[in-house]
Structure formats: C-alpha cells, structure tokens
Amino acid sequence: MTATTPTLASQYDPTMTESKWQEYWERNEVFKADPSQGGEPFCVMIPPPNVTGSLHMGHAFEETLIDTVVRYQRMKGRNTLWLPGTDHASIAVSAIIDNELRSQNKTRSDIGRQQYLARAWEWKTESGGTIVNQLRKLGVSVDWSRERFTMDDGLSTAVLTAFNQLYEEGLIYRGSYMVNWCPASQSAVSDLEVENIEVDGHLWHFRYPLTHGEGELEVATTRPETMLGDTAVAVNPHDDRYRHLIGQTLTLPLVGREIPIIGDEFVDMELAPAA
C-alpha cells in the first residue's frame, strides 16, 4: 500500500492563506477589545490614512511596526485596543474634486456647495473603502467594530468642544499672521501642503540717509516689504568702506525712524553693496 504525497505548488500563493485567516479573525472577533476581560489596558489609535486614493509602501511599513507592538502586548496578556479609522484630508480631497471638475470644464461655483459636498462624500466612500480593504489585506490586528472617520458626528463634536474649551481658557486665540494662502482654493494651507521652488528674485536697493551729517548708506534686499520693520543695518567691521559708520544712526525711509549701524562679520563683503 502506498500513500500519495500532495504536490507542493511551485510558488506560494499568499491570497489563500491571508484571506483564510482574515476571515477567521473577524468572524471570531479575535481583536475586539472588551473592557470586561480585565488586564492592564493598552490602547493605540491608528494614524488615520487620508482618503485621497490608496495606501502606499510607507503605510504598509508603518502599520507593520504598530501591529508588531500591539500583538506583542496582547501576547503579554494586556487588554489591547488598536483603533482603526481614516482621515478626511479636506484640502487634498478638494484638490482631487477640483481636478475632476476641471476635466469637465466646470468649477465648484458651477455645481454649488451642496453638490460639491455630495461629491466629496462620494469620493470618501470610494477611496475610504479601498483603504479599509487594503488594511484588511495587510492583516492588521485592529478592532473593526470601532472603526471611525474623522468627520463622524462624535469626533466633530469632540473637536468643537475641545477648541471652545481651549479658547475660553485663553490657551488658543485668533490673530492676524502671515499664512500660506492658496489663490485657487481661496484657503489657508499648512506648511506641509506647500511645495518650495527656487526662483530668480529681484534685488531692491534703498538709500538710507545718515541721521547726522551728509551721506547715505545703500542697502540691498530681496524682501523690500521687511524694510518697514528694520531695527538696525549691519556692515562688516573689516570692510574699510563702512567701518567708520559703525555706531552712527540712519533714518529709515518712509517711516522716519532712527536706527543704528552695527558691525557683524556675518555680512558678506563681496556683495555690493555689503549692507
């Protein structure tokens, strides 16, 4: 009597194994957090991916690291919760919708606020669903029964409550400041959303008259708007052209404010003028 040996596949097919265990984990609620089970709590909130398309290798790397820690703590007997969710990323989503409208020769003004918001929610459903499916395929040990979206009613209320409380306690405030402004979206954007590029600028020259006596000092700058806030003009103390002016004062043009001439070796003497 001979026994037949099953033939091993020439290549490993991960989809069969992964789908089997994903289904098992979710069906048996293996990763569901239950406060009644006791044990020292260990809670981690997933860094919510933006609903702007699909996950990339950076997400996979990040979730793998977190999953390793969460599973380790679970093996130690701690009552673990890894909370899943996605982020709305409003500015990025708006850019995607604007591009779609542009391809149709339309603008957000053409379709109106309500239809624009409806498109945003449609995109969230489509993209967010893709991301959640990708996370499931990664096998992350999250509690899917607690999945959240950053614009859920509860979370939105929590954000408004927190901001109101911080404002009432004087910990945050509004004011007039320099911000990154997008002329297309008519909205302020964070530094993370800004792409810096180098351009050839123009060098503006100003003549600052000496306060006492005749003469003036020429100053060059690429940012003429900062001139109004000048508090001093620096020259290199080793520069024979201007060394004798250190300690004297200048009259700030347009403002008429008196400011001192100071010495600083940081000034490049090769530039003309070197002030």
Description:
Helix content is 34%, strand content 16%. It is an alpha/beta fold and 275 residues long. It folds into 2 domains: 15-168, 3-Layer(aba) Sandwich (Rossmann fold); 204-263, Isoleucyl-tRNA Synthetase, domain 2. A 3-stranded mixed sheet has the order 9-11-10, with no helix packed on it. Strands 1-2 form a two-stranded parallel ribbon. Strand 5 (180-182) and strand 6 form a beta hairpin. Helix 3 packs across helix 4. The protein starts with 13 loop residues before the first helix and ends in a 12-residue tail after the last strand. The relative contact order is 0.09.
Which terms summarize this structure?
single chain, 275 residues, alpha/beta, Rossmann fold, Isoleucyl-tRNA Synthetase, domain 2, three-stranded mixed β-sheet, two-stranded parallel sheet, 5 helices, 34% helix
In short:
The protein is an alpha/beta fold and 275 residues long. The chain is 34% helix and 16% strand.
